[in-house]
Amino acid sequence: MSAVVRRLRVSDAVDLQGSCFPEQTLDAVQAYAEWCLRQMETGRLLRLVAEVDGHAVANGQLTLQGDQAEIGSLVVAATYRRQGIGRQLLRALIAEAEGRGVGILVLAADVQERWLRAWYEREGFVHIGEHLLPRDERVSVLQMQLGDREVE
């Protein structure tokens, strides 16, 4: 399945709350979307959504820090998983990072989700270690060197 990947809009909050963040209130998702848009104006952050049939069904974030960036909050609605939408969104985020001159791209994945680490590795990321977050959540840290990689 192919989705349209585009920048976040405030109006996406309704779809994202229903499909990706059902445990959050609509007000909370809308407030976060508004915060993201303000950060996007500064150039420090980019939040993309994947849209299918006019509805946002996935989203992901690129946080920029000089020549490095971090991908985070990559979430695909349960009913749209395993259809290539996550890959399409991830690749769009990587392309955005490359276009902005990012040299090193990092992300973190829950160590309990071994399949997720393997998926990121198939996409070109390399496991560089583990990190303990607050609330005793252990994550695998993965990295991708940009600029000299082959694109499919």
Global outline = globular
Helix content: 25-40%
Approximate strand percentage? 35-45%
Query: Kindly state the mean pLDDT as a whole number?
Result: 92
Number of helices: 4
Could you describe the largest sheet, including whether it forms a barrel? Answer: 7 strands, mixed
Radius of gyration: 15 Å
CATH superfamily, by name, is Gcn5-related N-acetyltransferase (GNAT)
Sequence of secondary-structure elements: EHHEEEHEHEE
Count of discrete domains: 1
Which tags fit this structure?
single chain; 152 residues; alpha+beta; Aminopeptidase; seven-stranded mixed β-sheet; 7 strands; 32% helix
Outline:
The protein is of the alpha+beta class and 152 residues long.
Task: Give the SSE map.
Blueprint: E1 4-7, H1 13-19, H2 26-42, E2 45-52, E3 55-65, E4 68-76, H3 85-99, E5 104-110, H4 114-122, E6 126-133, E7 137-145
Parallel strand pairs: 4-5
Antiparallel strand pairs: 1-2, 2-3, 3-4, 5-7, 6-7
